[in-house]
Write a structure and sequence with these properties.
By secondary structure, the protein is α+β, with helices and mostly antiparallel strands. The chain is built from 25 helices and 38 strands. Residues 365-370, 821-825 and 891-906 have low confidence and may be disordered.
């Protein structure tokens, strides 16, 4: 067979279309650049396995747990067309270049492409940390093979997550709630948020007092704070533990009386300077950004969520503005160091650049493979002003942050001096009071001229102010004014923000910084954590999940155990261990070290009620129920009329109430003010059914109680017979659906009457027909009362009008043009201008299931992990594009398939 004729074409495959367009500009003619659009294949759901494999050792996980944990991969249905296109392109190519990202995920994508495409031409692995002409040409000079160790590490992580999730999640379904999920990193991160809330719940505040005063010298005045009384340090917040107990023995604890009497005794005291201490001040710049520090700083300074930060950074990278954004390394290439130093000297002056380059050691012991820090792309950096017109608002802000941090990292130290003045006097009651004031003066800003790092909230913020103190000397006399006693309370540990949680995850070595954004987003999407402002607050269901995992899967939510797993995956990536052997030990265990399988098979009895219960106050317990959390009294409730013991009293817990705010006093208040769960209103005279008013999770409503069919009634039903003449067992009739109706806003369970309930349950009310015979009804909905004629709905005024509006009035409504109107007149929550595809205006509206983004053609719900404040135009465009790409939702047909004929017997 003759060999294929040379075409001169070279096929280059990357992950994303944006990346492919940028690279194509630099490669020139002869190169075809295509995008795989992420992974082309993955583990299928076990239910999607071929029938012959479902009963094999592959059946449970789509991983062969009996044969070296070999995964069963399938090409994703939405990627089959893409694979066919790549194969067609490959037929006309003389060489294949796999140019996916250089981390484990990118290496795995390259390997999967190799496995599926089965190229018969030379294959080269091509990696680069930035998409610039220089970087692409350098990459062409440093081609290599696919790194199988990196692929093994990624595959091991993927299988590990499948084993963890598929074994542990079903336990949560049985004991907490359906639909919950456990994850190797996700569950540990949730535990961190829950642990912080537990600390806040256990916290007991301590009060302490001190004094402040305004002191004057000839050269100016300054504020100072009481530091010591009779030579003993005055207690401050850090001298108390979280139980409110004083932990330091050599401090004086001032209460209100002691503090106010001391302030009064110092009114006419003779204050003098006791010491002046001046020290040189030096501050070094922060290292260039890693993935983790970028997420933290963008959260602090730009108020970006971790997810938003990574999405914007991805676009900047793919369009050639910054280097690769998933990295643990803070190192800069020689070219980048030169570029940063040159730009600092040009913009700020040569004195702002140190003599030699600054070198930053990686904080992470296992920095991602062969990456450098996140920095502006290129061998010379573009200033923010030079790229401003080419970037969107969020892209510009993030690029500016990265540029400033990179340039500042190669600039000189900030220099100055810190002065501390100690001054004192003897009060009229003989107590010696010593005050202190500190201030820092920057004499040479150095890197601060370009950039200053942000800080997370701390409960012990006691840093020196950047202020200049007057020039005083020991024994100088000072004037005193406004000496006042000031009371304080210790603060609980601050809740995590996305930035501080990211910092803590990196500190503990849990997970990969490249996955922090998706993990934090996942725990919000799952309902384990919500945002309150920028703080992360756990739900009560998260408490139940973590309690179960701590009691029965202790190691799997242990911080150190999880960090060690990351270390093991690093060893696999470095070729020091083999994935299959590691997975065998993890799943099956060894000797005295039980594996996951053994733990799941020997769980014993799990008390679901105990797992879902949290004692709040004496006699009051919080329960996590099917419809959310509620309070329950352990003291039996006695019916005042009959004296019988009835169901324990309950009260719903408001969704917006954070766990640490549910104190014993708050629980008692909720129980005392709770409306009755159920009130019998009487009997419907037409049906004989009992009518009750209830308080439900989603509001108060009325309903009828349809009695269960009795054995006698069941026995008296007409008898049906089989063809052979034998009687069929009596069928239990389908239970009738009870009529219900939501209470009007003006009604309550306590006050609604039987007549009102019967009216509510009679809805919708038929008003009559229009001229064409179309029936018109009126009813109440989630968004208020409305008329309905076929598919045409019109809002009306008040709920009370439901029972008074006439057919004539309804026809008058329908004679008017429909205003998208009474309800559509409500302004959108946000507007983002025209969509680049549909060219229609993008708006955010309030919908039945929460806020959603629409261009009038395509709708997509705003993800729970994204607040409206964080939603950007770029993200809105991206979400709409993703929804379009998925196409319309396929509706499941309710038609039954025809019964299959039995196979003929042979």
């Amino acid at each position: 067979m003759p060999s294929k004729a040379k075409t001169g074409k070279k096929l280059v495959i990357v992950e994303s279309p944006a990346k492919s367009k940028t690279i194509a500009k630099y490669l020139g003619e002869g190169f075809i650049v295509e995008a795989s659009i992420g992974h082309i294949r993955d583990l299928p759901q076990p239910s999607d396995l071929p029938a012959e494999l479902k009963k094999t050792s592959l059946g449970k996980f789509a991983v062969d747990v009996e044969n070296d944990f070999k995964p069963y991969y399938v090409v994703s249905p939405d990627k089959k067309k893409k694979v066919a296109e790549l194969k067609a392109q490959l037929k006309d190519a003389d060489a294949l270049y796999l140019a996916t990202d250089g981390d484990r995920e990118g290496e795995a994508i390259a390997w999967h492409l190799l496995e599926v495409l089965k190229p018969k031409v030379p294959v080269y692995r091509m990696t680069f940390g930035e998409i610039t002409k220089e970087a692409i040409h350098r990459a062409m000079d440093n081609l290599r093979d696919v790194d199988t160790a990196l692929v093994d590490a990624q595959e091991t992580r993927r299988i590990l997550d499948r084993l963890y999730g598929y074994e542990i999640s079903p336990v949560l379904w049985r004991k907490v709630a359906r639909g919950l999920s456990a994850g190797r990193v996700q569950s540990v991160v949730t535990r961190m948020v829950v642990d912080r809330e537990r600390e806040r719940m256990a916290f007991r505040a301590a009060s302490y007092w001190d004094l402040t005063g305004q002191f004057g010298a000839g050269s100016g005045s300054f504020k100072a704070k009481l530091a010591a009384v009779d030579g003993s340090k005055v207690a401050s917040g850090r001298d108390f533990n979280d139980d409110g107990q004083l932990t330091s023995s050599n401090v004086v604890h001032l209460n209100e009386d002691l503090a106010t009497s001391l302030a009064a005794g110092l009114e006419n005291a003779d204050f003098r300077v006791r010491s002046v201490d001046t020290k040189p001040y030096t501050r070094r710049p922060a290292a260039p950004f890693t993935t983790s520090t970028l997420q933290q700083e963008a959260g602090r300074k730009l108020r970006f969520s971790s997810k938003s930060t990574m999405q914007v950074a991805q676009r900047l990278y793919e369009n050639g503005y910054i280097t690769y954004m998933r990295t643990d390394s803070s190192a800069l290439s020689d070219e980048a160091v030169t570029a940063a130093r040159r730009q600092a000297a040009e913009l700020y002056g040569p004195e702002y650049v140190p003599q030699g380059p600054r070198v930053y050691a990686n904080k992470s012991a296992n920095a991602q493979e062969a990456h450098e820090a996140i920095r502006p792309a290129g061998d010379s950096f573009r200033t923010p002003a030079q790229v401003a017109k080419q970037l969107s608002g969020d892209e510009f802000r993030l690029y500016e942050l990265i540029w400033k941090r990179t340039v500042a990292s190669q600039m000189a130290d900030a220099k100055g001096s810190t002065a501390t003045i100690r001054l004192g006097a003897v009060a009229s009651d003989g107590r010696d009071a010593e005050f202190s004031a500190s201030g820092t003066v920057i004499t040479f800003p150095g890197f601060l001229a370009a950039y200053e790092e942000g800080k997370d909230e701390s409960r012990d913020d006691d840093t020196d102010e950047a202020r200049r103190l007057p020039n005083v000397a020991k024994d100088d006399s000072l004037t005193a004014s406004d000496i006042v006693a000031v009371g304080h309370e210790t603060s609980p540990p601050p809740r995590y923000t996305e930035a501080s949680l990211t910092a803590e995850l990196e500190k503990k070595g849990i997970g990969r910084p490249s996955t922090y954004a998706s993990t934090i987003s996942t725990i919000q999407d799952r309902g384990y954590v919500r945002k309150q402002g920028s703080a992360l607050v756990p739900s009560w269901i998260a408490f139940s999940v973590i309690r179960l995992l701590e009691q029965h899967f202790t190691d799997y939510v242990d911080y150190e155990f999880t960090a060690d797993m990351e270390g093991d995956l690093d060893k696999i990536a470095n070729g020091q261990a083999v994935g299959a052997a590691w997975l065998k030990h993890f799943y099956y265990g060894e000797d005295t070290d039980p594996g996951l399988l053994s733990i799941v098979n020997n769980l014993g009895e799990i008390d679901a009620r105990e797992i879902n219960s949290v004692p709040i106050a004496e006699g009051i317990t919080l329960r996590v129920g099917k419809f959310g959390p509620y309070l329950e009294s352990s003291i039996p409730t006695v019916d005042e009329k009959t004296g019988e013991v009835v169901e324990s009293a309950r009260a719903n817990v408001p969704e917006e109430l954070a766990p640490d705010e549910l104190t014993a006093a708050k629980a008692i208040e909720l129980m005392e003010t709770a409306a009755p769960e159920e009130r019998v209103l009487g009997t419907d005279p037409h049906t004989g059914h009992t009518v009750v008013a209830k308080n439900g999770r989603y509001g108060a409503y009325v309903t009828e109680i349809i009695p269960e069919i009795t054995p006698e009634q069941l026995a008296n039903q007409p008898v049906e017979y089989y063809k052979n003449g034998k009687p069929k067992p009596p069928k239990k009739p389908v239970k009738a659906k009870p009529r219900t109706g939501s209470l009007f806003k003006s009604m309550s369970v306590d006050t609604v009457t039987l007549d009102e309930a019967l009216q509510l349950m009679s809805l919708p009310r038929v008003l009559g027909e229009d001229a064409d015979g179309n029936p018109i009804t009126v009813q109440n909905g989630r968004f208020g009362p409305y008329l309905k004629k076929g598919t045409d709905s019109r809002s009306i005024g008040s709920e009370e009008e439901i029972f008074t509006i006439t057919l004539e009035q309804a026809l008058e409504f329908y004679s008017q043009p429909k205003q998208r109107g009474a309800r559509a007149a409500v302004p959108p929550l946000a507007e983002f201008g025209p969509d680049p595809v549909s060219e229609k205006n993008i708006v955010v509206k309030e919908g039945r299931f929460g806020p959603y983004i629409t261009d009038g053609i395509t709708n997509i719900t705003v993800p729970r992990s994204t607040s409206l404040e964080e939603l950007t135009r770029e993200r809105a465009v991206e979400l709409l594009a993703e929804k379009r790409a998925k196409g319309p939702v396929k509706r499941t047909s309710t038609r039954k398939a025809p019964a299959k004929k039995a196979a003929a017997k042979k």
